[in-house]
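Cross-posting from the modeling subforum.

Setting up a comparison between two proteins and wanted a second pair of eyes on the formatting. Protein 1 (sequence, then structure tokens):
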Amino acid sequence: MAKKTDQKVKDTAIKPVSVLYRIYIFLYGVYLRLFRRLHIDRSGMKDIKPPYFLISNHQSMVDFVAAAMVCRRDVVSFVVSTHFFRDPVLRIGLKYGGCIPKRQFFPDLAAVRKMLRAIRAGQSVGLFPEGQTCYSGQCNDIDPAVGKLVKAMGVPVVNVRIRGNFLTAPKYAGGAVFPSYSIASGSLLLTKEEVESLSDSEIAARITEGLAYDEYEWQRSEMHRSRRPRTLTGIENILWLCPKCGKEHTMQTDGTDLFCSECGYRVRTDDYGFLKNTDGTPAEFDTPPKWFNWQKKQLEARLDAGDLLPLTLRGRFLESATGDFSEYGYGCHGEGTVTLDKDGLTLDVTRDGEPFTYKVSPGITFNLTHNADLWAFDIPGNTKEDRDFAFDPEDSRDMMKFVQIWVILRERYYS
């Protein structure tokens, strides 16, 4: 059975069905223009012809539609997490849309071969190098291996810059939409000659620079008001540490407010997405990215002091597999603990009633993805079984803490 499901992913079509692709992008594009005020700037796309390698920042689940609209007449095969191909219904649309399945943050030679085949057939390929939608409104870390991948493609690189999609539909908000204003624009980032002449690291640096953004700094210059009242519900899973008393597991939300149940510290959002004190003055961390970055510094200090690791969490053990897509793309197969130390993470759980241990190192996996519906973090699983794992901690606010520590370990010991 495992071989059969694995083969289904490998046989996924490369070339999109052009008519269906265009109809879908047109209809979804109409919705985005009317209800999310998406604007498209194609002025930088003049004289750019396929095949090219498209990269884009990743703010929301509709970014691929915005990127496709920037390309207009060109049909692009987008690289999509293998996880989504396990949905029996969604798989059909992805297949005929020409999407290429890839395991996130993990070497996937099969996906690279499919990208190369598409490029050699004259088809453009689209990739979101952040690997997942952004956490707090600023660019996630970019895997330096993207330079080597672009070098292998050997075609020009187009950069699609998307702004406003995070503020319109923040990942933490659980699907809530706050219609405001967003824009997607495209331009040539690297010519074919530059791709051929630059080193892998130089290409990666250009891509990292081209993708860098802070949604809230962009908003300071734009100041687009939301059409409906904003809320902070769910943001406590991202901003999990109180900046006043330093306590964990105490941040809670109540509509427009984020507060600490221990010391009473409280901030609220305005119509533009900025955080204010209760008297209306700017908060110490007036944007989620500032707060998020401060949390990382606190974790680094704890690591230096020797009181951060090992970290052990209790929770549910989940798996993502074809035919096992019952709970936000996962099925629960047991429970137990996950422990994080300098060597990586160790799952020690029950799997369908049997003891199961599994280890992953930051030296192999660049990052951990996260599921914003379950507030679980995803773990690359068994390739032969075509399965990925996830762990759903008892306290959802531990999820992002775990992911942030993983980034620190990668930077400290595996760069």
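Protein 2 (same layout):
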Amino acid sequence: MQMDNPIGDDVRSGRANRRLGLFDEAPDMADATLVLLRVENDGSQGIDRDDYTSPEPHGLTAVFTDRTIRGVSVTQPTDTDHLMDHFTPERGFGYAGNALRIPRVPLNKGDHFKLLVLLSGGDVGREIRLIGGIREGEVHPNRSATPDDKPPLFSRASRLITIMLTVCVVTLATIVVAREDTPPPIGCATGTLRITGSTAFAPVVREVAGKYEGDCAGSTITVDPHGSTAGVRDLDATGAQWHKAGSPPLIALSDGPKPNDMPELRENRIAVSVFALVVNDGVRLRNLSTADVRLLYAGRITNWRQLGGPDLPVHLVSRDANSGTRQVFQRRVLGRGEIANSSVDCVHKDDATAPVTRCELDSTDQVLSEVAELPGAVGYSELNLATRAKGLHILDLDADAPSVDAIEHGRSAYPYREIEYAYTYGQPPADSLVSSFLTYLSRGNGQDVIRTHGHVPCWTPEGMKLCA
């Protein structure tokens, strides 16, 4: 709390403040006060929306004893405006009586925002309680120094750092003398974990899993992707069997949000993935309009010459129904589902009445391989994998090229993109391998891997806005 001042009375004489006269005519505002609250992440890790433990839609509640809230303003968010997007009624922001509802605002380490609260009734200095919790952390008051305070020779932070360094040196000396094995890094957990779901995001998770196992002895992580929908349904079914035993050691990655019929699944937003349409190099087109793409996948374009390309029949190489990449394509680009499957081998029609040849494959790698080998083939893929593939090229949409950098910095409205979610069944224990790995993936060393593979981590200033 950085300020708690009366503004309706003259504090020196006790008489009505005629010089200001701010609330003389306003009902119930004779005892008006202003309180300035600063909410800051002073911990060592970022805070996600899902890290708030309140059962309510909002994250924290500030209760002003014996006072009534008349208005509130958000002021001075850290550096960027992306925090302001969270202060909406839809995210729980608001007040009633003496309670101020503060939304689940994601905060990087050191980020803060301020709330200027106008109140009436009661006296300044009355207790202000902050209700709510943070997973693997705590909500606690900090005392803000006033101009009349004499600062200590060493600040609280300096004293704390000195104590911590002393403890670290003593601990290190003890380990060296005792010649004990080096303990695992802070936050490590042991046990087994299985990760399923998205095939498009699987290369990221495999690399991060390998790094985690290297950093944290005693952990075994298996990456077994079968598509986003299959993954979340596997998690839902496994969790139901584990219901009384807690949360299972299983994470499901999904390109986009889960279906609505799985209320027990808890989301963690990991990254923004960018996808692309790919076409065999024999089709020399470089750009298609969204309208043309919709005609293609409705079976209305049967030969590429109809779009100004070569005289080649169209072959639609699609993903199976479990694919999140396909669902994002249908949701973000087509606005509807694709036409029915008509081929097993992607080459010959099994249904002679079908307008075009369309097949379905189980993974992104299979789609890229088939499109590269089959003249006239078109498909879709995660962007980074498509960029490295040979024998095919990426199509622009409405003259807008898929670019992670342009999307991250707000220079592109390219539509074929989606948030990558990691789902758990309920809330896994804080000391579990599931929780430890998710922290490592989203806020630890996994962020560098996510970037290397061409995704935008949600736990960066730019990513927070895209993932909100």
